[in-house]
Amino acid sequence: MDITLKVNGSSHSVHVDPRMSLLDLLRERLGLIGAKKGCDHGQCGACTVLIDGRRANSCLALAVAMDGSEIVTVEGLMEGDELHPLQAAFIEHDAFQCGYCTPGQLCSAVGMLGEPGPSAVTGDLREDPGLTPEEIRERMSGNLCRCGAYVNIVSAIAEVAP
User: Fold this and answer.
1) pLDDT tens-digit map of 34-48
2) SS3 of 106, please?
């Protein structure tokens, strides 16, 4: 099938097998290797990208379903030579160790910052809570870090959170 999608600001028209995941399209066909294939089951978050501004596991998204969508990967977070504020905060707070999960953590955090509303740990579900460390941990719980850099990841996100 032929699809057209915008990835990191550039339009791409590609022919894809209907069974191909968005992750495989990004890595194998477009050469964007930031999103990682961790579990291939949507359980680790290493493949997280932004699809039309919302975070999603690209290993679970079919490429054919992305026709007309706008995708942002970790490679597209920078503005020219300027790091995204979260990228700079991850560096400042040493929020990565091996770095394998970092692209997914960054994309998930960018998406999370744009998602209003309560979470499972919000005391009053009628209000939009601030991003406390507890809220950040809950909202980032779908992204695993095998090295255990969670404390520094939460600190980096808290620094950038509104």
Assistant:
1) 999 999 999 999 999
2) helix
